[in-house]
């Protein structure tokens, strides 16, 4: 994994978080400004007056924009998991063995040290799990049925 990959993944994560959170924050900001202007015009300084409209606005915004927000997060997660196999098979430059300098004590290369490739092992196992989930979701899976012992007991305890 090189620096460009890390920066790209982090940038994509931050942009997705911004896209998902921004509409709700904008709704809350606009409602707060409108209520503040109304409070200034009428000289009603009730603290709870700002919270009720904001709560309704945020819930309404979450209800209206919910499907879009979920699809945006699912798209990001799909892109992230589909990038895992490429990340898992890249060998980092820090794991390349170094040539010994002079009479310095020779150490094992970083790739032979315990735990050096643990992140690659984890990434590869996540990639395999993601591939099996995708294969399972592509096949039509029937609804799970209850075991015979659970259906025979009739639910009585």
Note down, in words, how this protein is organized.
The chain has one domain (3-92, 115-137). The protein has 157 residues and is an all-alpha fold. The chain is elongated and about 65 Å long. It contains 4 helices and no strands. The mean pLDDT is 76. The N and C termini lie far apart (55 Å). α1 (3-42) runs antiparallel to α2 (48-88) and α2 (48-88) packs across α3.
List its traits.
4 helices, 157 residues, mainly alpha
Portion in helices: 55-70%
Beta content: under 5%
**How many angstroms separate the termini?**
55 Å
Compute the number of helices.
4
Radius of gyration: 27 Å
The main β sheet shows up as: none
Order of helices and strands: HHHH
SS-derived structural category = mainly alpha
E-strand count: 0
Shape summary: elongated
Mean pLDDT: 76
Low-confidence stretches: none
What is the number of independent domains? 1
Brief summary of the model shown:
The chain is mostly helical. It has four helices and no strands.
What's the layout of helices and strands?
Layout: H1 3-42, H2 48-88, H3 118-138, H4 148-153
């Amino acid at each position: 994994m090189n620096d460009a990959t890390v920066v790209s993944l982090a940038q994509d994560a931050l942009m997705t978080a911004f896209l998902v959170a921004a509409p709700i924050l904008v709704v809350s900001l606009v409602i707060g400004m409108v209520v503040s202007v109304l409070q200034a015009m009428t000289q009603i300084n009730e603290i709870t007056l700002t919270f009720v409209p904001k709560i309704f606005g945020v819930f309404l915004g979450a209800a209206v924009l919910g499907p879009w927000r979920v699809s945006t997060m699912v798209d990001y997660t799909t892109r992230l998991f589909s990038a895992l196999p490429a990340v898992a098979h890249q060998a980092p430059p820090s794991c390349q063995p170094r040539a010994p300098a002079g009479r310095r004590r020779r150490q094992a290369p970083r790739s032979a040290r315990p735990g050096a490739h643990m992140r690659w092992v984890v990434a590869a196992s996540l990639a395999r799990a993601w591939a099996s989930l995708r294969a399972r979701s592509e096949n039509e899976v029937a609804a799970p049925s209850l075991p015979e012992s659970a259906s025979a007991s009739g639910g009585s305890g």
